Amino acid sequence: xxxxxxxxxxxxxxxxxxxxxxxxxxxxxxxxxxxxxxxxxxxxxxxxxxxxxxxxxxxxxxxxxxxxxxxxxxxxxxxxxxxxxxxxxxxxxxxxxxxxxxxxxxxxxxxxxxxxxxxxxxxxxxxxxxxxxxxxxxxxxxxxxxxxxxxxxxxxxxxxxxxxxxxxxxxxxxxxxxxxxxxxxxxxxxxxxxxxxxxxxxxxxxxxxxxxxxxxxxxxxxxxxxxxxxxxxxxxxxxxxxxxxxxxxxxxxxxxxxxxxxxxxxxxxxxxxxxxxxxxxxxxxxxxxxxxxxxxxxxxxxxxxxxxxxxxxxxxxxxxxxxxxxxxxxxxxxxxxxxxxxxxxxxxxxxxxxxxxxxxxxxxxxxxxxxxxxxxxxxxxxxxxxxxxxxxxxxxxxxxxxxxxxxxxxxxxxxxxxxxxxxxxxxxxxxxxxxxxxxxxxxxxxxxxxxxxxxxxxxxxxxxxxxxxxxxxxxxxxxxxxxxxxxxxxxxxxxxxxxxxxxxxxxxxxxxxxxxxxxxxxxxxxxxxxxxxxxxxxxxxxxxxxxxxxxxxxxxxxxxxxxxxxxxxxxxxxxxxxxxxxxxxxxxxxxxxxxxxxxxxxxxxxxxxxxxxxxxxxxxxxxxxxxxxxxxxxxxxxxxxxxxxxxxxxxxxxxxxxxxxxxxxxxxxxxxxxxxx
Length: 677
Ligand code: PRX
Hints:
The chain is α/β, with parallel strands linked by helices.
């Protein structure tokens, strides 16, 4: 895709220097940052090697820093050995066993806290139980849990025995869960009876049951935590209560030492095809970056109460809930529920009650809470806060200013952190004691991160404010190692464009005259809905899987709160074609398909069909993928060579004037139809 036309329309002049009282105490001040940047610029591998020796508890020290022999599969510290969970938790279990590690609050206000000792014991008990169930080092375990301590315990228990966790966000549908279980060939699933959100149950165990009815799968054991007390169906041969297994497990659970490159986890994320990618991260490089960036970017210390509002189902919930802050001995707050339950003061109430010092959330949440006005946050004592962060999508300057003024009370630095599931940790961000900030910019790459903006030919763009491809031109320890089971796709997606040494992020960005980075959005068919990545192709595949749908094209349009929202254009099959749809793959699908057939056999009004299709996407992929807009049209606009004209559809979805060239359109009359409201 050409970036030649990427023009920036944003011009933000405000600038905020580091707050003196913060900077004078910060772990990284300007001087240290300069030194790190110099070293990271001239000898990135040397910098990472020093930091990993300093920061990680190695069982066997490494001698090789960066191995490029299998590029673009890079290996870091590869002859070293450690255990990521032990390296994370054990120093604090020894040093501060009674310090709260996790403070949990449920939506109804129920709360519990686990000290580092208790967390360590729970991890060992579950690790031993998993071993007792035959889970060995390298085996994949799918975790499909509510946002509760047991989700984190499950992740660490896997890490402790060298098993590879693959957390699937609890908001994903049974179908998505099935696809991920099969792709990872996981034999064990860890889940809970149900979670809660917005006053409703999220029936996780029922979704697991449904997923496992969907088709062939390798799962032999489902381990269930009792969490909500909801009644659930039980399959004697397959299901086990977690508490029964842990009660009867052998005492202790010695850590499994693994090579630095051993996979710590897989996390599925959307790409530009219909199939999600299992992003594979390594044990040592990943942990190093998660731990280190907590210090550099969040200035995190042992006495901090850190609250990152992300669910463990996303990368942010991995790096900045389950691993990074615990590796630094901080106290981590987790909340299971909606930010607006019972009202929009919930986040601020939690900050007040638990004395949160560092708060990290997504722009979508900030915008939603900003809309509710200044009165709600004003009711809470937010004086414990000392630093605020954002992640997941560009933050508009208005939301940034509100966050700064109303939440930070103009005394907390804001770190706008750019990174991705693939990068493992924060890559471009202010360092709060040293970097002046500008609302809407993630500022500059962290030391050792060789981010650049390049043109179509891979040449660096030095001219200010000209958009191009955001790339990283030197490997870094927490980079993804592979797409699970698909090395070719890994190579093609991330290194196909500019060669083995140039990781392509998929984002476009520009740099201003001060060298500050401004992220402009995705260059591929990935949309960012409420800070969550979704492939338009995934939504299209879900739509065409409906027996009534012939073709679908999905684009995004800007959305006031969510950042972007999904707009689907759908072409329906003729009545006769619908009845000849492919046979269902399983019993569950058969029942559903029959229902669908009956529903669509009757002439249905457009509105009813739109509702039905939106609900269908919800069922196939989960509520975040449900299109906000769905338009049924006669045909998709295509070029004569059969390519869908997505740019035209995007303009239509955004109600923009159509000024692009439509002369190559197969059916020119269609434009007139499509632009009619
Ligand atoms: O487009 C960028 C956007 O989110 C994408 C990564 O999404 P995901 O892998 O789900 O990880 C989200 C949490 C790290 C990026 O390619 N993005 C992330 N952070 C920012 C951002 N866009 C602008 N500013 C950010 N701070």
